[in-house]
């Protein structure tokens, strides 16, 4: 899976965009984020300009899987 496919899945599942940031554009506040940093994919929760629950992945697919898992947990409480 890539970020484009992830975005389509999130739309289909009705997970609001206010919960995530997939393209690095916009405010990283109170969101689950994914970004490519120095050839490494990072997934984290952003709050007050800090990265929490940071996980790093060598490939985009694994990082996207992690974002999807986190968002499903967060939005289905």
* Low-confidence region ranges: none
Number of beta-strand segments? 4
What's the pLDDT, averaged over the residues? Answer: 93
Q: What count of helical segments does DSSP give? A: 2
Radius of gyration: 11 Å
Range of helix content: 25-40%
Portion of residues in beta strands equals 25-35%
Count of distinct structural domains:
1
Structural class label: alpha+beta
The CA-CA distance between the termini, in Å, is 25 Å
Largest sheet: 4 strands, mixed
**Order of helix and strand elements from N to C terminus:** HEEEEH
What topology, given as strand order, has the largest sheet?
Answer: 1-2-3-4
General form: globular
In short:
The protein is an alpha+beta fold and 77 residues long. It is built from two helices and four strands, in the order αββββα.
List the helices and strands and how they pair.
Elements: H1 3-12, E1 20-21, E2 31-37, E3 40-47, E4 50-57, H2 60-75
Overview of the molecule:
This protein is α+β, with helices and mostly antiparallel strands and 77 residues long. It has one domain (3-75). It is built from two helices and four strands, in the order αββββα. It has helices at 3-12, 60-75, and strands at 20-21, 31-37, 40-47, 50-57. It has a four-stranded mixed beta sheet with strand order 1-2-3-4, covered by helices on one side.
Give structural attributes.
single chain, 77 residues, alpha+beta, 4-stranded mixed beta sheet, 2 helices, 34% helix
């Amino acid at each position: 899976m890539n970020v484009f496919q992830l975005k389509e899945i999130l739309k289909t599942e009705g997970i609001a965009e206010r919960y995530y940031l997939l393209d690095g554009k916009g405010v990283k506040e109170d969101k689950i984020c994914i970004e490519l940093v120095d050839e490494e994919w990072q997934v984290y929760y952003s709050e007050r300009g800090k990265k929490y629950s940071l996980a790093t992945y060598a490939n985009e697919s694994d990082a996207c899987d992690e974002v999807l898992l986190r968002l499903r947990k967060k939005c289905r409480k």
